[in-house]
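Appendix B, record 7
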Amino acid sequence: MFSPDGPSLRELTVQALSSVERGYDLLAPKFDHTPFRTSDPILESVAKALAPLGPFTDGLDLCCGTGAGLDVLAQVCGNSVTGVDFSAGMLDVARRLPPPDGPDVRWVRADARALPFGTAFDLVVSFGAFGHFLPRELPGLFRQVHSVLRPDGAFAFPVPAPPRPSGPGFWALLGFDAVMRVRNALWRPPFVMYYRAFRLSTVLRELERAGFAVELRALPGFGRRADGSPRARLVVARRAGTGQPAAGTVNS
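Structure tokens (predicted):
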């Protein structure tokens, strides 16, 4: 499916009936030939938006998968970039990437809900992984990210505008989530992937509760909708520096 080098329908079915970890281990060799990989325009737009927010020294790609975010971090981090994921198969693919010029690269297998790092980074990014976390898991996840960031460090990730109910995208995502809920009610182990469960209002609230100062920046290159709102935003959550209070949310 998707392309001649992509997974077959049978392979996708086997993946969908597996656990999240096992499913991605199976999909890893063909993952980059599916629409599930974060697209290059999004990656490039995030890199451009992050550049003026630096300089950054050490970066972490949370739930890095096959390493699509490597170049983003390599463009803005001067010392090191780290990818962390709990799928050994995805990390095996990531390790085959040619190393970028400049920062050192390492890949770590770990659960994002229990990160094995100290206060080691001044930038954390993530691309397309939050659907794998239930809403009740977000507070703990955000506390983990907060704990590995240095003072004034940033946690950044892109968020597309939700599709309108009048468009086919809305109903496609609604249908996908409904199928996943039925699947998880009938089959074990569960495969957690819900597109509509990651709601921006909830995310902003939980980031602030975790101690972040949050702002939203329009991502360049995606334009605006008819009501003037951006088609895609970058969430930038800063860990307050010593003695600095957390700020509120700024919309753009």
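Remarks on this record: Residues 168-186 form the longest helix (19 residues). Helices lie at 9-16, 20-27, 40-50, 70-76, 88-94, 138-148, 168-186, 200-209.
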